[in-house]
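=== RUN LOG ===
request id: a7f3
mode: sequence -> structure
chains: 1
length: 477
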Amino acid sequence: MNWEAAITLFGSVALIFFIGLTASRKETVGKSFVQDYYLGSRSLGGFVLAMTMTATYGSASSFIGGPGVAYNEGLGWVLLSVTQVATGYFTLMILGKKFAIVTRKYKATTLIDFLKERYQSKLVVLLSAVSIVVFLFSAMAAQWIGGGRLIESLTGLSYTSALFIFVVTVLIYVTFGGFRAVTLTDAIQGSIMFIGTLVLLIAVIIAGGGISEIMADLQAENPNLVTPFGSDGTLTAPYVSSYWILVGVGVVALPQIAVRAMSYKNTRSFHLALMIGTIVVGVIMLNMHLIGVFARPILPGIEIGDRVMPLIALEVLPSWLAGVVLAAPLAAIMSTVDSLLLIVSSTIVKDVYINYIKPEASRKKVQGMSMGITALLGILVFLMAVNPPDLIIWLNLFAIGGLEAAFIWPIVMGLYWDKGNKYGAIASMLVGIISYIVFQSFYPEPFGMHAVVTSILLALLAYVGFSLSMRQEPLKQ
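=== RESULT ===
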């Protein structure tokens, strides 16, 4: 085991664990356990909101899988990845103040709360719950695997042991901490990610002899590595452009991101988060993917792409500093997975159990169920992650696309189009989910683009067509 790197890495984990438990002790002051546990009492300031959105979106896919693909594909994947720069901006601009105002009016604490009140349909709630549980399980498995891979590469422990350490740490603080603990730790994690990626990029450039020498080495190995088209020329313009939908505009439909857009304190916090979030996400995503490409001449022949990040950090930095810097991707993974756990837990407890099974459940009962379900979900995903694939990014992108195909139009059109109704929402979700799964299974790149683009267009046609052709009784305002 590399003790220096392990001590500094686990020191960061211990700090995060301490903050989570400290925050959890403050949660009993609120009137509603559900508001506190799942939404932090809608009290996030601008900096915390920006960092929690950044840390939640910056996942194992961004920090482990993305650089791994960039290592194989070259600068073409960096160009594709920068589409994520606009993620925070699009999310807050599209959902914006209107989403926060409407969710406060509905007293919504989850995305499904909003959809339930907007469409007054049990079928919409059921489809939403199933979509979240199914697709977020894939996303959570990707995060579990990323955390395990990182600790495995850094410490020399077996993958299973590393995965177990990661899972236990996350489960303890998210089970007892809830949303407030998650957002507070996100602020620290986002800062670590921002600084850590800068330090690592500089160290990689120095180790490679400067940018000019790195580029010459890449070109000598394969000229395609320094073009926009990927190592084998498969990154076409339509395919790259479609990622503006998948990891750009479409992100507004991710439940774990949308719930943050309803939790800020005031307008000043909103504007501050808009500015900070866009800058931080842009810097982090560009740096991480450049690191993946620049690592190729320094450490050639890495077979498992998900191990590129931890191995290059250990190669170009002193061990103790590598441990500190790698706290950035570990922080991102922990932040994403704890948020996903809360989303799935709230879907089961808040949206299904309280809404339809036992609305009069006591605070103590809800608290016990929330913590128990969160812990159980973590264990189930751990079992799924025991046998991982070589690259987790495709698992994560599959989950993101599925959620976007299901939710983007019921959310966006539900906010801005008065004629949208439950028939349109149901049709849109069914068409989006089914077409996405069919395309992914049999025709993954229709018209040369990622399948999510075609599925979203079909879902839009279904939403508008069914809303206009099938009338619904006026809803309560």
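=== NOTES ===
The CA atoms of residues 134 and 140 lie 10 Å apart.
The chain has a mean pLDDT of 79.
=== END ===
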